[in-house]
Amino acid sequence: xxxxxxxxxxxxxxxxxxxxxxxxxxxxxxxxxxxxxxxxxxxxxxxxxxxxxxxxxxxxxxxxxxxxxxxxxxxxxxxxxxxxxxxxxxxxxxxxxxxxxxxxxxxxxxxxxxxxxxxxxxxxxxxxxxxxxxxxxxxxxxxxxxxxxxxxxxxxxxxxxxxxxxxxxxxxxxxxxxxxxxxxxxxxxxxxxxxxxxxxxxxxxxxxxxxxxxxxxxxxxxxxxxxxxxxxxxxxxxxxxxxxxxxxxxxxxxxxxxxxxxxxxxxxxxxxxxxxxxxxxxxxxxxxxxxxxxxxxxxxxxxxxxxxxxxxxxxxxxxxxxxxxxxxxxxxxxxxxxxxxxxxxxxxxxxxxxxxxxxxxxxxxxxxxxxxxxxxxxxxxxxxxxxxxxxxxxxxxxxxxxxxxxxxxxxxxxxxxxxxxxxxxxxxxxxxxxxxxxxxxxxxxxxxxxxxxxxxxxxxxxxxxxxxxxxxxxxxxxxxxxxxxxxxxxxxxxxxxxxxxxxxxxxxxxxxxxxxxxxxx
Length: 521
Hints:
With 521 residues, this protein is mainly alpha-helical.
């Protein structure tokens, strides 16, 4: 079993990243449709701000658990158990984790429901001066918070599937959230109901639907767990020792965003502007960063367990070059097209032209940090595969301090823009600390081939940026929706083609890499 699993892995790694990426892309596209409804129905007014807070609280844990910390702690241990002791023993370990996890989540949820007024007051400082808004936010957050239970337990079953090389169910489960919310808003419109009521109840229902989808996939794959009385065994202790610091390390981008949202509630509309900007910013971060981190971790864990450091470093170099080759041009293109993209996606109904301008400016500020956060996602598996969650935690903690300092210091003068720039600054500080640690301990380094290809990617991105800016000034932006949508799509397609041609000519991308990518698309 061990030999067979190892021999197949080189064929599975890149397709796995592609599966996760396609699933995330499908979810993001559905998420944009969802946000079209939200922007039109709620705009950036009080209900929009309340929804952002009530939804972001459980969604924060979804992103941390489903896209980071749980995989980083569980997959290496579960994979090691599969490799060395077989599936039966690995499932016994998973059962013990499951029992403690579900018990802890129920207790946490009960406490959160009781103390929700204090929790919302801490997360939305600007609501404290508005008792009615605070009361409504507490009401809706209490409805949405149980979503955390479903997402966390779903992460356990998804992590087991990932460890066995089955990525489809966990990759496409987030799509169901957006589908349910779209249906909820459609019903709200047809019933002439209050949109936020349907939205928040939709979140709770979507959690159950997503969990059921992944649970069935795991059951059919023979990954069946029984709920037993919680037992604190040595292997469970190791898991939670890795998990607790990993929660902060993997969720640093979300923690920074949550801190920013709390501060932003002090400015009317700011929390909603940052939410919509984050939706666009999360597209490349989710599709590229999450796909790489989720698919790379099992591969690195196997190499490290086999003491094959050369293969581990090669895998890490490949992931970094994929991350930079996709993210640098994406960040630059998103910066240039921020205004048109926000306008065509959100400016209708309650979402005004002023909201478009404020959201686009926040998006441009976030673009500066996009490459850093994707690279953080690509580099974290090198720590997690070696069961080191403490170091990323320290790095992330420094990033949070930077974020808080810049946000609080500049917010009175620059408003929501201070929060966006603070988020980007925190990302670059965290990345620099992470690179220094990896290089100093000879885990991975920017060797000459990587640097040469990275230089080609940077040069190609600059060429693309100049061409894109020229095209934006030469071709007028249409005033009707269909024309403006085609305009944005054409600019994205043209910019992508320009980057590929330039990158091939400058050595940023090799023809073999491009053929490999096309085969997997």
